[in-house]
Design a protein that fits this description.
heterohexamer; A mainly alpha (395); B mainly alpha (624); C mainly alpha (103); D alpha/beta (157); E mainly alpha (164); F mainly alpha (408); A: 395 residues; mainly alpha; 2 strands; D: Beta Polymerase, domain 2; 20% helix
C-alpha cells in the first residue's frame, strides 16, 4: 500500500507540475506567436502590457475570464456546452503520456519525467487526437449557425482525412524502433543526431508528411479552413465567447504542443542531445544563455533609451545565472534533457508560426485532393519502403 | 545465390515502365528497360562464376506456394517457389539474357519513331519486353513443372501482347488471338501431363519426379511424354500446331527475333530436354517427337522456298529449324538439340534483326520483290547478315554447321531415313536463305523508298550477333558442356555424314545463285512449270484453310445449331422458366410475410433467434 | 472485497447491449439511428469475443474483433453513402418510407 | 428630325437612316455627341446602335429631373464603342405624370442595375425589366430622393 | 478494484446504450454510442486487450462514428417523426424473452468461478495481434483489405454527384 | 438594399427544393463579413460548398452624394468627390475637376497637369496596395497585407505633405491645385520611388510562384470577355481578359499622352490574371511617376482665370481687383455656362465617369457619377455561380470594389 500511495502522490505532484507549466506555456505560446508573426510582418506586436508585452497573456486571460459568457438562443444547449470541454480535454489528455526526459532521481524518489508510460503510448495519442474532432464538429453543429456548420463539416472531413497519412507517417519510425512506447522510442534513438529517426532511420519523408498532416490536424495555416475567418467568419467557434472560446483556443495550442512533441519524440530523438556530451553538448545551453547575457550587457552599456541601461543588464544577470545553473552537475541530469526537448519542440512550434505568417490558405477541394491524391499515396509508399528495408536488415 | 534476382530485375523494369512509363522520356524508358535486362545478365554471369562447375543442380527454396492436405497424406500437395540452376539452365540463361539484352538495345533504334496507338507505344513495348524476359527467366529457372508452366503461360501472354502490339490493326490482333488460341491446345496437353505426373509421382518438382521416373512403368512415361510433347508442339510450333508462328510476324521485328526465334519458341525444346529422364525411358514417345520434328522441318522448309515476305521466309525457317531441334531431342541427342537451340538463337536472331534493319532502312517495306541491290546501300546490315547466312547454311566452321551436324549424326544413329530427309532439308534451308539474301541484297534495286543505314544502336547488336553466329559454335561446345546433364547420350563420330550435309548446304547456295542471280528468269519459269506444287507450297499447303474447313467451321456451326438453339434455348431455358414460374407461384404465398419494411424483417429474425435458443435449450446440449 | 469479476458478468453485459441494439433497430425509425443500432450490436458481440479470448487465453478473439471493426468500417462507408443517396432521392430518413422493395 | 449640322456625324446619320422618326433632336457640344430619341423607340434604337454600330458597352444610364418643366424626366444613356473609340449620349424625355420607359436590359445586361438605380432614385418605371426593385434605398422607403421636389434634408428615418 | 471499474463502466455503457435507443435526435444517439464505445474500450483494457481497446477508440469512436456525425450534420437531420407502425408489440416481449434466455444460459454455462482480473491476460498487445494477424490469419486479413477496397469504390460510386 | 430576409427570388417552390434533395442552404454573406470589404451582402444558395446561385445586395453605404452636389457650389463639391471612393480620392477629384473645367473651357497650366498625373498615379498605387493586401488576406496570406500597408503609409505621408490630409485630400481643385506643392516634395517622392519597385518584387516573391496562391487563383472567377462587356465590367478586369482598353491611352486627359507607359494585359481572365495585371500596373504607375517627377515643368500651378480660381493670398491683400474676385468666389461661387459634359477617366478600378449638367448657375444642376465598382459588381453572380465558397472570396477580391464607390 505504501508503494501505491507514493505512486499516487508522485503522480499527483507530476500532474500538478505539468498542468501548471503547460497552462503557462499555452498562454505564452500565444504571446510568442503574436511576437513572431509581428516581427515577420515588420511590426512590434504586443508592446503595451508589461515590457515587450510580456504581461499580455495575463491580460488576455483576465479579459477572457471576465467577459460575458454568452449562450445564444437557438443553440443546442448540451452539445454546445460540451463541445469546448471535449476539445480541451482531448487536447490535454494526450499530453499525459508524452515523456519530457529520462528517469530522474528527486531526493529519495526515482521517477520518469512523464505522467505515465503506456506501452501503447503512440496508439493512445492517436486515439485521443481522433476524439478531438468531436469537439469541433459538435461546436459547429450545435451553434445552429451556417458558418459554424460549414466549419464543423469541413473540420471533420479534414481531420479524418489527414489522420490517415499522419498515422502512416507515424508507423514508419515505429517500425524502425520496433516499439509503441514513446520512452523506448526515444531510447532507440540515443547516440548522436545520426541515430535519430529523421536521419539515421531515413525518415525525412515521414517527418515531412507528419508535419504537414500535423498542420492539418491542428487546423493551422495553410489548412485552417474550419476557422477560415475570411470565408466562414470564425468557423466552428463563431458563436462562442469568453472561456468557451478560450477553451478552443487553448485546445488548438495544446494540440500544437502535442504534435510538436510527437514530432520531436518520433523523429528528432526526443530529449537526446544532437551529439554526445563528451564533445561538449552539455555546454550548449550554458553557452547560449551566456552569449545572450553578453549581448544584453553590451547593449545595456550602449543603451539608446534610458531605462535600457537598467533593464538590459538586469536581464543579462538573470541569463548569467541561468547559464550557471546549466553548468551545475547536480541539475544537469534533468535540466539538459529538458532543454533539448524544449528546444526541438520549440523549433517545430516556431515552424508553425512561421508558416502561418507566410502561406495563403488552401481551398477545400484542393485540401482534400492534396491529402488523398498526394499525401496518402506518398505516406503509403514510404511505409512500404520502410517496412521492406526494415525486414531486409532485420534478416 | 539470390537466383530470384535474375527474373526480378526485368520484373522491376516492367513495373516501373508499365506504371510510370507514360510520363517518362524515351531515354528514361530505355535506361530502365535495358538496364534491368543488363543487370539480369550480369547477375547471371556473377551467379555462374560463383557457382563453379555445376555438375549437380543448385536449388534455392523461397517460400511455400501451394499447400494442401496433410503432410504424408494421400493428396498432400506442397509446391514451393523454387529456383534451380544446372548446366542446361546456364545455357538457357545466357541465351535468354544475352540475346535479350542485345535485342533490347536494338529495339531502341528500331522503335525510335514509334508512338504506337494512343502514343503509348514506346514504353508499352519495352514494358512488355521486360515482362517477357521475366517470365522466360522464370520458365528457365523454375525447379518444378508448375513453375515452368507459370513462365510458359507468361511468355505466351507476352507473345500475345506483343504480336498484337499494333492493336489498332486488325491483322495484328487476329494474329495475336491465333497464337494465343493455338497455344491453348498445346497448354491443354501440358496441363494433362502435369496432372498425370502428379497422380503418378505425387509431386511436380523435377528432382522428385525424375528420381521416381526410372522405376515407373513405361506406358505411364510414354503417356506423359506424349502429352508433354503436345505442349511442346504448341509452344515450339511443330506440326500440327505451327500455324500461329508465321502469323506472329505481325508484331514488331525485335519481337519476332526475341520471342519467335531465339527464346520463347525454344521453350518446348528446353522442356523436352529438361524431361530427358522421362523420354529416355519412353522410346516410343521419342520416336514420335523425332518424326514430328523431321516432318515439320521438311514441310516448313518447302514452304519457305516460295515466300516473298522477308519476315515470312525467316518465320518458316524458324519453324523448320525448330523441327531440327525436335529431331535432335527425339533422337536422344538432347545436348545436340540444345546446341542447335543456342546457335539458332544466334543466327536466327541475327537474321530477323537484319531483316528488321532492312525493313527499317526501307521504311517498312517487307516484300522482297521490292528490294534488291541493297548490298551497297546498307553495307553493315549486309555483312552481318552474310554471317548468319553462312551459319544457317551449315558451312564449316561456322556455328550452324556444328549443331546441325550433331543433330544429323544422332538422327543417323536413330534412323537413316530421318537423316536423309534432314540432309535434304539442310539443302533446302541453304537454298531459301540464299534466295532471300540474293533477292534482298544483290541485283538491282526495285523499290521506291530511299534506303538508309541503321543507327549504331541497331548495328552494334547485329555485329555482336554476327560474331557469335560465326564463332559461337566453336567457342561454346555445348554437348561437352552438357555431358554432366545428359549422361545417357552416346558419343558417335562419322565424318562421312558430315561431308554429305556440308555438300547439301553448298549445293543449296549454288542452286539459289543460279536461279536468282545468274539466270534471273529461271525461278519464274520453274514456278510456271511446276505450277501445282508451287501453288501448294506458296499457299502453305492450305493448312489454314484445311483447319477452317475441318475444325473451326464444324465447331462453330455445331455450337450454333445444337448447343445454342437446341439445348440452351429449348431445354435449359425452358427448364429454368418453368421452375421460375413455379417458384413465383409459391413465392406469391410467401410474399405475404414480406412487408418490405426492414424492421419487420428484423422482428422475424429476432423471433427466429428466440426459437433457436429455445430449441437448443430443449433439444440441444445447453444445460437446463 | 471482491477483486475479480466473474466472466459471466461480461457476457451478460454483452447480451444486454446486444438486446438494446436490437431494440434500437426495432423501435427507431430514423435510418441513421437504425444503422447505429447495428453498430451497437456489433460492439456487443465484440465484447463477447474479447471475453472469450480472455477465458481461453487465446488471441484469436481479438482478431475477430479486429475483423469486425474493419468490416464495420467498410459497412459504414457504404451504408452512409447509400443513406446519402436515399436522402438525395427521397428527402426522407424515415425507414418506413423507404419501401420500394414492397410490390 | 436630325439637326442639319449633325448630318456629318456617321453615327447620327446612321440612326437617322435606321429610323427617321426616332430622332427628335441632337447637339454636339464639348466634342460630345448627343442624340435625342423618342422615348418609345429607345430600345430599338439601342439595339441598332449595339449590334449595327458596335456600341458594345453601355457606360451608364441616369436621369435628370427637369421639375417643374414638362416632360419632366430626361433619361440619359452613355454608350461606348471600343472598336471606334467613340462615345455617344442618348436622351429620351418622358412625362412626370406617368414616368414609364422601355428597359434596355434586353440589349445590354449591364443596364439592369442602372435602371434599378434610376427607378429607386427617380421613380421612373421600366417595362420589361427583369428585376425592378429598389437597389440603394431600403425596400420600404417612400419617395425618390433625386427628384427635385424631394427635400434636401430628407426625412427622419 | 476491478469490480468497481467494471461496474462503473458497465453502467455507463448500459446507460449510454439505453440513451442511443431512446433519444429522438440522431446526433444525441450518436454521441451516446460514442460513450458506449469509450466505456467498452476501458472494459477491453480490463480484459487485457490493449490493442483492441486502442483500435476501438481510433477506428470505432474516432473514425466510424465521426463519419456518422458528419453525415447527420450534412443531412441536417432533425428529430424523427412518429410515422408508420410501431413494432413495440411484437418486439418488446420477444426482446425480453431473448434477453432472459441469454442471461440464463450465460449464467449456467459460465459458473461464477471463472474470474477476470486485470493483468490476467497479457497477450493482447500489438505485437501478439500483429504476429497472429500476419501468420495464421494472413488470408482473412488480405480478404478484408480487398473488402475495404471494394467498400471504398462502392462508397465513391454511390456518393458521386451525378450518376450517368 | 433589401431587408435581411431572403428575397422572393430565392424562395423556391416545394418541387424545386425536393429536386435538390432539400440540401440547399441559403447563406447570408454580409453585410458584416470579413471578406466583403465593407457592407456588401451576398445571398448565396449553397449545395454543399458549391454556390448554386448568388444575389448581391448593395446600398448599405448609400449617402446621397449625388443629391448633395445639387446644393453645393462647384468648388465646394470637390470635397464630396473624395468620399465616393475613399481608396482613390484623388482620381475622383480629378474626374470632377476635369468635367467642370471642360464646361468652363479652362486651360490648366502644365505644372498642374503633371502634378495631377503624378498624384493620380500615386493614388492608383495606394488603391492597388490596399487591394493587394486585402485580397491576399482574404486568401489567407496575412503578411502581404501588412507589407502593403507599410508602403501605403509612405504614400499617405506624401499626400499629407501635399495637402495636410492623409485620405480626403481634396487637393485637386477646379482650375488647378489647392495649394502650391510643398518644398522638398521631390525628395520625398524620389525616396519612395527608390524603394517601391523592390517592394513589388517582394510581394511577388511571396505570391506569384506560391503553389497555394496559384491553386487558389488560377482558373478561378472566370467570366468570358463577352459577358464582361455585356455586364459593364471595366478596368483591370477587362485587361485581365486580354482587352487592351485604358482611358489614359484611348482618350488621354490631363496630358497623359505625354507619358510613356504600357497598358498591361493578360488573357487567362481569371483571378490570377487580374492579379498580374494590377501588379504590372503598379510598375507602370511607378514609371509614370518617375517621368512626371523628372520632367515636371515649371510655371504656375493654377489656371489664369481670376473669376474661377481664388487669388493668391498676397495678391488679395495688395490688389483691389483680387480682393473683389475673392469675395465673389467665396460668397457666391462662380457661374458655369449652361451645358452638359460626361468626363471619363481611368480610375484604379476602371472607368470613372462624371456626368454634369449645368444650368448656368453657381451650383451643378445634376451630377451623376458612373463609378467602376457599381458597374463591376453586377457581374458577381455570373462569376461565382457554380464555384466554391472559397472561390467567392477570391473572385470578389479580384474585382477590387469599394462599397463607397458602389453605393455613393
Amino acid at each position: 500500500m505504501e508503494l501505491l500511495d507514493s505512486f499516487i502522490v508522485i503522480s499527483l505532484i507530476k500532474a500538478a507540475v505539468i498542468f501548471g507549466v503547460l497552462m503557462t506555456t499555452l498562454a505564452y505560446l500565444q504571446w510568442v506567436e503574436r511576437k513572431v508573426i509581428a516581427h515577420v510582418q515588420v511590426r512590434p506586436g504586443p508592446y503595451r502590457v508589461g515590457p515587450h508585452g510580456l504581461l499580455q497573456p495575463l491580460a488576455d486571460v483576465i479579459k477572457l475570464i471576465t467577459k460575458e459568457d454568452l449562450v445564444p438562443p437557438y443553440v443546442n444547449k448540451l452539445p454546445y456546452l460540451a463541445a469546448p470541454f471535449l476539445a480541451i480535454t482531448m487536447a490535454l489528455l494526450s499530453i499525459s503520456v508524452i515523456p519530457f526526459g529520462p528517469e530522474i532521481t528527486v531526493g529519495p524518489v526515482k521517477t520518469f519525467m512523464q505522467m505515465t508510460d503506456l506501452n501503447i503510448g503512440v496508439l493512445f495519442i492517436l486515439a485521443a487526437s481522433s476524439m478531438g474532432v468531436y469537439g469541433i464538429a459538435l461546436a459547429g453543429w450545435a451553434s445552429n449557425n451556417k458558418y459554424s456548420l460549414i466549419g464543423g463539416l469541413r473540420s471533420s472531413a479534414q481531420m479524418i482525412s489527414y489522420e490517415l497519412p499522419m498515422s502512416l507517417a507515424i508507423a514508419a519510425p515505429l517500425l524502425i524502433s520496433n516499439t509503441l512506447s514513446l520512452r523506448n522510442l526515444v531510447e532507440a534513438q540515443s547516440g548522436s543526431i545520426l541515430n535519430w529517426n529523421i536521419l539515421g532511420g531515413g525518415q525525412i519523408v515521414s517527418f515531412i508528411i507528419f508535419i504537414i498532416a500535423a498542420f492539418a490536424e491542428t487546423n493551422r495555416v495553410p489548412f485552417d479552413l474550419p476557422e477560415a475567418e475570411n470565408e466562414l467568419v470564425a468557423g466552428f467557434h463563431t458563436e462562442y465567447s469568453s472561456m468557451k472560446f478560450a477553451s478552443f483556443f487553448m485546445a488548438e495550442y495544446a494540440n500544437m504542443i502535442t504534435v510538436s512533441a510527437m514530432a520531436t519524440l518520433l523523429f528528432l530523438g526526443g530529449w537526446k542531445a544532437p551529439w554526445s556530451a563528451e564533445y561538449g553538448s552539455s555546454l550548449v545551453p550554458a553557452a547560449i544563455f551566456g552569449i545572450a547575457a553578453a549581448v544584453l550587457f553590451y547593449h545595456g552599456a550602449n543603451a539608446h533609451r534610458k531605462r535600457d541601461k537598467l533593464t538590459f543588464p538586469a536581464f543579462g544577470a538573470i541569463f548569467v545565472v541561468i547559464a550557471a545553473i546549466f553548468l551545475l552537475p547536480m541539475v544537469q541530469g534533468w535540466l539538459l534533457p529538458l532543454f533539448w526537448f524544449s528546444a526541438k519542440t520549440g523549433g517545430i512550434l516556431f515552424l508553425f508560426m512561421w508558416i502561418r505568417a507566410t502561406l495563403p490558405r488552401f481551398r477545400y477541394d484542393q485540401l482534400m485532393g492534396f491529402t488523398w491524391k498526394f499525401l496518402f499515396p506518398v505516406a503509403m509508399l514510404n511505409l512500404l519502403v520502410t517496412a521492406f528495408l526494415v525486414a531486409w536488415f532485420a534478416k | 545465390m539470390q537466383l530470384w534476382l535474375i527474373p526480378t530485375f526485368p520484373l522491376a523494369g516492367f513495373l516501373i515502365n508499365g506504371i510510370f512509363g507514360r510520363r517518362f522520356s524515351k531515354s528514361l524508358v530505355n535506361t530502365v528497360a535495358i538496364g534491368s535486362v543488363l543487370l539480369s545478365f550480369l547477375w547471371v554471369l556473377k551467379t555462374v562464376l560463383a557457382l563453379g562447375d555445376l555438375n549437380t543442380a543448385h536449388l534455392e527454396h523461397y517460400f511455400t506456394w501451394i499447400q494442401s492436405g496433410v503432410p504424408g497424406g494421400n493428396h498432400y500437395i506442397n509446391i514451393g517457389c523454387d529456383f534451380a540452376i544446372d548446366r542446361l539452365t546456364v545455357v538457357m540463361l545466357f541465351v535468354v539474357t544475352g540475346i535479350g539484352s542485345l535485342i533490347h538495345i536494338y529495339s531502341i533504334g528500331y522503335m525510335a519513331h514509334e508512338h504506337g496507338p494512343n502514343f503509348g507505344g514506346y514504353y508499352r513495348f519495352f514494358a512488355y519486353l521486360n515482362l517477357f524476359m521475366f517470365f522466360m527467366l522464370v520458365l528457365v529457372l523454375g525447379a518444378s513443372y508448375l513453375l515452368l508452366f507459370v513462365g510458359w503461360e507468361g511468355v505466351g501472354l507476352c507473345s500475345y501482347l506483343l504480336i498484337g502490339f499494333y492493336f489498332d490493326k486488325k491483322f495484328a490482333t487476329t494474329a495475336g488471338n491465333k497464337a494465343f488460341i493455338v497455344n491453348r491446345i498445346g497448354d491443354f496437353g501440358f496441363s494433362l501431363a502435369m496432372f498425370y505426373i502428379f497422380i503418378n509421382f505425387g509431386s511436380l518438382d523435377f528432382d522428385k519426379v525424375f528420381h521416381q521416373a526410372a522405376s515407373a512403368p513405361e506406358w505411364v512415361l510414354t503417356t506423359i511424354g506424349l502429352l508433354l510433347m503436345v505442349g511442346a508442339c504448341g509452344k515450339s510450333a511443330q506440326i500440327p500446331l505451327y500455324i500461329w508462328l508465321p502469323d506472329a510476324m505481325a508484331g514488331p521485328t525485335p519481337v519476332s527475333a526475341l520471342i519467335h526465334a531465339a527464346t520463347m519458341v525454344t521453350a518446348g525444346v528446353y522442356m523436352t530436354a529438361r524431361s530427358w529422364v522421362i523420354y529416355t525411358h519412353a522410346p516410343g514417345a521419342m520416336d514420335v517427337i523425332a518424326i514430328v520434328g523431321i516432318a515439320t522441318a521438311f514441310m516448313a522448309a518447302t514452304i519457305g522456298l516460295a515466300q516473298t515476305d522477308i519476315k515470312k521466309v525467316f518465320a518458316y525457317s524458324t519453324v523448320s529449324q525448330l523441327g531440327y531441334m525436335f529431331v535432335g531431342v527425339g533422337s536422344g541427342a538432347f545436348s545436340a538439340g540444345v546446341y542447335h537451340l543456342m546457335t539458332h538463337a544466334f543466327f536466327k536472331a541475327l537474321l530477323f534483326l537484319g531483316a528488321g534493319s532492312v525493313i527499317h532502312a526501307l521504311s517498312g517495306e517487307q516484300d522482297m520483290r521490292n528490294m534488291g541491290g541493297l548490298r551497297k546501300k546498307i553495307p553493315i546490315t549486309f555483312w552481318t547478315m552474310c554471317c548468319a547466312w553462312v551459319a544457317i547454311s551449315g558451312i564449316p566452321p561456322f556455328s550452324g554447321f556444328f549443331s546441325k551436324d550433331a543433330i544429323l549424326l544422332a538422327a543417323y544413329q536413330h534412323s537413316p531415313a530421318i537423316y536423309w530427309i534432314g540432309v535434304l532439308t539442310a539443302g533446302l534451308t541453304a537454298f531459301y536463305v540464299s534466295r532471300a539474301m540474293f533477292m534482298t541484297f544483290f541485283g538491282a534495286y526495285r523499290g521506291k523508298a530511299h534506303p538508309h543505314e541503321s543507327p549504331a544502336v541497331m548495328w552494334v547488336p547485329l555485329a555482336i550477333l554476327a560474331a557469335l553466329s560465326l564463332f559461337g559454335g566453336m567457342l561454346f561446345k555445348i554437348p561437352e558442356f552438357l555431358k554432366a546433364s545428359f549422361p545417357a547420350e552416346a558419343e558417335v563420330e562419322n565424318p562421312m555424314l558430315m561431308y554429305i550435309s556440308v555438300a547439301a548446304g553448298l549445293s543449296g547456295i549454288a542452286i539459289a545463285y543460279i536461279m536468282y542471280l545468274a539466270k534471273t528468269g529461271m525461278a519464274d519459269s520453274l514456278a510456271r512449270t511446276f505450277s501445282a506444287p508451287y501453288r501448294l507450297i506458296y499457299n502453305k499447303y492450305f493448312v489454314d484453310e484445311i483447319y477452317d474447313a475441318t475444325v473451326v467451321n464444324p465447331i462453330l456451326g455445331g455450337s450454333r445449331i445444337v448447343l445454342w438453339k437446341g439445348i440452351d434455348s429449348g431445354v435449359i431455358d425452358g427448364l429454368a422458366n418453368g421452375i421460375a414460374s413455379r417458384c413465383r407461384d409459391v413465392g406469391g404465398i410467401l410474399r405475404l410475410l414480406q412487408s418490405g419494411s426492414i424492421r419487420s424483417y428484423a422482428s422475424w429474425i429476432l423471433f427466429g433467434g428466440v426459437v433457436l435458443i429455445v430449441a437448443m435449450g430443449l433439444f440441444g446440449g445447453l444445460p437446463r | 472485497m471482491m477483486t475479480a469479476v466473474p466472466i459471466s458478468w461480461f457476457l451478460t453485459l454483452s447480451a444486454i447491449l446486444f438486446a438494446l441494439g436490437v431494440a434500437g433497430f426495432l423501435f427507431r425509425r430514423n435510418i441513421i439511428t437504425v444503422f447505429m443500432s447495428i453498430e451497437l450490436m456489433l460492439n456487443a458481440v465484440n465484447l463477447s469475443f474479447v471475453t472469450f479470448s480472455y477465458q481461453h487465453k487465446e488471441v484469436a478473439g481479438h482478431l475477430f474483433t479486429f475483423f469486425v471493426m474493419v468490416v464495420a468500417a467498410a459497412e459504414a462507408a457504404v451504408g452512409l453513402a447509400i443513406i446519402l443517396t436515399v436522402f438525395k432521392n427521397r428527402s426522407t430518413l424515415n425507414i418506413d418510407d423507404v419501401n420500394s422493395m414492397k410490390n | 428630325m436630325l439637326p442639319d449640322n449633325l448630318k456629318e456625324y456617321p453615327v447620327a446619320a446612321a440612326v437617322e437612316a435606321f429610323d427617321a422618326d426616332a430622332v427628335t433632336g441632337g447637339k454636339f457640344e464639348f466634342s460630345e455627341l448627343t442624340l435625342e430619341i423618342l422615348a418609345s423607340k429607345i430600345s430599338s434604337v439601342c439595339g441598332f446602335l449595339k449590334y449595327d454600330q458596335k456600341f458594345i458597352r453601355l457606360s451608364t444610364v441616369t436621369a435628370v429631373d427637369r421639375f417643374p418643366a414638362e416632360p419632366r424626366f430626361e433619361l440619359v444613356y452613355h454608350l461606348h464603342s471600343i472598336d471606334r473609340n467613340e462615345r455617344l449620349r442618348l436622351k429620351a424625355r418622358i412625362s412626370g405624370a406617368d414616368p414609364v420607359i422601355e428597359s434596355v436590359t434586353g440589349v445590354w445586361r449591364s443596364a439592369n442595375w442602372y435602371e434599378r438605380e434610376v427607378f429607386d432614385l427617380f421613380g421612373v418605371r421600366f417595362t420589361n425589366h427583369p428585376d425592378l426593385r429598389r437597389i440603394l434605398m431600403p425596400d420600404d422607403w417612400e419617395g425618390h430622393p433625386l427628384r427635385k421636389d424631394y427635400p434636401i434634408t430628407g426625412t427622419r428615418v | 478494484m476491478d469490480v468497481i471499474l467494471f461496474l462503473i463502466f458497465a453502467l455507463i455503457a448500459v446507460v449510454c446504450a439505453i440513451n442511443v435507443v431512446v433519444q429522438t435526435h440522431p446526433i444525441s444517439s450518436a454521441l451516446s454510442l460514442v460513450g458506449v464505445m469509450g466505456s467498452l474500450a476501458i472494459l477491453y483494457l480490463l480484459l487485457g486487450a490493449e490493442f483492441i481497446a486502442a483500435a476501438q477508440v481510433i477506428v470505432y469512436a474516432g473514425a466510424i462514428m465521426v463519419l456518422f456525425v458528419f453525415v447527420i450534420m450534412l443531412l441536417n437531420a432533425g428529430a424523427e417523426t412518429k410515422k408508420g407502425r410501431s413494432y413495440l408489440i411484437p418486439g418488446a416481449p420477444l426482446l425480453v424473452v431473448f434477453l432472459g434466455l441469454t442471461a440464463y444460459y450465460v449464467q449456467r454455462l459460465f459458473p461464477a468461478n471463472t474470474m477476470v482480473t486485470f493483468g490476467g491476460f497479457t497477450k493482447g498487445g500489438p505485437r501478439e495481434i500483429g504476429e497472429a494477424l500476419f501468420t495464421t490469419y494472413l488470408l482473412p486479413f488480405e480478404v478484408t483489405s480487398v473488402l475495404i477496397l471494394v467498400a471504398i469504390v462502392g462508397a465513391i460510386v454511390l456518393a458521386r454527384k451525378e450518376i450517368e | 438594399m433589401s431587408d435581411l430576409g431572403v428575397p422572393e427570388l430565392l424562395a423556391e417552390t416545394e418541387e424545386q427544393q425536393a429536386a435538390t434533395g432539400g440540401r440547399r442552404m441559403v447563406l447570408n454573406m454580409g453585410p458584416q463579413h470579413p471578406s466583403t470589404h465593407g457592407v456588401l451582402r451576398l445571398l448565396l444558395e449553397l449545395d454543399g460548398e458549391n454556390i448554386a446561385s448568388c444575389v448581391p445586395d448593395i446600398g448599405f453605404l448609400h449617402t446621397g452624394i449625388e443629391k448633395e452636389f445639387e446644393v453645393k457650389n462647384y468648388q465646394q463639391a470637390v470635397t464630396l468627390t473624395d468620399r465616393v471612393d475613399y481608396l482613390a480620392p484623388l482620381s475622383n477629384n480629378l474626374g470632377y475637376c476635369l468635367a467642370v473645367e471642360k464646361l468652363l473651357q479652362l486651360e490648366i497650366p502644365p505644372q498642374a497637369q503633371w502634378m495631377r498625373v503624378l498624384l493620380a498615379e500615386l493614388t492608383r498605387l495606394n488603391s492597388h496596395l490596399v487591394w493587394l493586401g486585402t485580397h491576399a488576406l482574404d486568401i489567407g496570406a496575412m503578411s502581404v497585407f501588412l507589407y502593403c500597408f507599410r508602403e501605403r503609409e509612405e504614400i499617405l505621408k506624401i499626400f499629407e505633405m501635399f495637402s495636410g490630409q492623409r485620405m480626403m485630400t481634396s487637393y485637386f481643385r477646379i482650375g488647378g491645385l489647392a495649394l502650391e506643392p510643398p518644398r522638398g516634395w521631390q525628395d520625398r517622392v524620389k525616396r519612395f520611388l527608390a524603394i517601391f519597385p523592390s517592394r513589388i518584387d517582394e510581394y511577388e516573391n511571396l505570391l506569384t510562384n506560391n503553389r497555394i496562391w496559384l491553386g487558389r487563383t488560377k482558373g478561378v472567377g472566370f467570366i468570358s470577355l463577352e459577358d464582361m462587356l455585356d455586364l459593364g465590367i471595366t478596368g483591370p478586369m477587362l485587361r485581365g481578359a486580354g482587352l487592351k482598353i485604358d482611358t489614359r491611352k484611348d482618350a488621354p486627359y490631363s496630358s497623359y499622352e505625354k507619358f510613356d507607359f504600357e497598358v498591361p494585359t493578360q488573357t487567362a481572365n481569371d483571378v490570377f490574371a487580374r492579379y498580374q495585371v494590377r501588379i504590372e500596373e503598379m510598375r507602370q504607375s511607378t514609371r509614370i511617376i518617375t517621368q512626371a517627377l523628372e520632367g515636371m515643368p515649371a510655371g504656375p500651378w493654377k489656371a489664369d482665370a481670376p473669376h474661377v480660381v481664388l487669388p493668391d493670398r498676397e495678391k488679395m491683400k495688395t490688389q483691389m481687383e483680387a480682393l473683389i474676385y475673392h469675395f465673389k468666389i467665396v460668397t457666391e461661387g462662380f457661374r458655369v455656362p449652361q451645358g452638359e459634359v460626361f468626363q471619363v477617366i481611368e480610375s484604379p478600378r476602371g472607368e470613372l465617369g462624371y456626368y454634369i449638367v449645368s444650368e448656368g448657375t453657381t451650383k451643378p444642376y445634376r451630377v451623376h457619377m458612373r463609378t467602376p465598382s457599381f458597374g463591376n459588381l453586377q457581374a458577381v453572380p455570373r462569376m461565382v455561380e457554380g464555384t466554391l465558397i472559397a472561390d467567392v472570396i477570391a473572385a470578389i477580391g479580384s474585382m477590387d470594389f469599394v462599397l463607397g464607390d458602389t453605393d455613393r
